[in-house]
């Protein structure tokens, strides 16, 4: 069963079959199973962490899925944009997403880097579920943005091996 999941994901990310190019298709959900980016070798004297190259790897994966499901145009490799129905394209609405990770540092860091690619920093983008811009307006009427040019904060669930919901 484990070999079926990556194959199904691979098929859904590589493009559409010839039949779906002729019809108006709606995408209701998507699942991305990403192990983690490149990490330093596990040794006994140094903890293993996500490398800069590994962070770039998973960031590119998030960016690709953004262009496929949240962007406004086709991807550079010709896969056409198909919006996910009912999901925010600009600001993270954490109730629309479920991001699971193990407690390993390289795995949670990979999830964060992936989400930076999926929902990059955007100035003046606030979830409508929190009254939109209302959460950022001060008493004097000025607008305060999130740090780092509008960095967005995803809710990432990390599970340990003693947790009954452990994802492995």
Task: Describe the protein's architecture and organization.
This protein is mainly alpha-helical and 168 residues long. The chain has one domain (49-168). Helix content is 29%, strand content 5%. The protein has 4 helices and 2 strands. It has helices at residues 4-14, 52-70, 105-118, 147-150; strands at 99-102, 156-159. A two-stranded parallel sheet has the order 1-2. Helix 2 (52-70) runs parallel beside helix 3 (105-118). It is globular and about 55 Å long. It starts with a helix and ends in a 9-residue tail after the last strand. The model is unreliable at 1-20 (pLDDT under 50).
Helices and strands, in order, run as HHEHHE
| Whole-number count of domains | 1
Principal-axes shape call: globular
Quote the beta fraction: under 5%
The proportion of residues forming helix, as a percent range, comes to 25-40%
**What is Rg?**
18 Å
Secondary-structure class = mainly alpha
Give the N-terminus to C-terminus distance in angstroms. Answer: 13 Å
Number of E strands: 2
Total helices: the number is 4
Say what oligomer this is: single chain
Name the poorly predicted regions: 1-20
Task: Give a brief rundown of this model.
The protein has 168 residues and is mainly alpha-helical. The protein is built from 4 helices and 2 strands.
């Amino acid at each position: 069963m484990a070999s079926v999941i990556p194959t199904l994901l691979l098929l859904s990310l590589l493009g559409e079959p010839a039949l779906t190019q002729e019809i108006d298709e709606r995408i209701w959900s998507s699942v991305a199973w990403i192990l983690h980016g490149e990490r330093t070798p596990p040794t006994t004297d140094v903890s293993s962490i996500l490398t800069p190259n590994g962070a770039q790897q998973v960031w590119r994966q998030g960016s690709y899925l953004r262009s496929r499901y949240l962007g406004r145009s086709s991807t550079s490799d010709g896969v056409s944009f198909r919006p996910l129905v009912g999901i925010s394209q600009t600001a993270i609405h954490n109730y629309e997403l479920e991001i699971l990770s193990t407690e390993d540092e390289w795995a949670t860091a990979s999830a964060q880097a992936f989400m930076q690619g999926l929902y990059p920093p955007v100035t003046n983008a606030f979830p409508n579920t929190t009254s939109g811009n209302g959460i950022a307006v001060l008493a004097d009427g000025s607008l305060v943005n999130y740090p780092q040019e509008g960095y967005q904060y995803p809710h990432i669930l990390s599970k340990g091996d003693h947790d009954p919901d452990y994802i492995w």
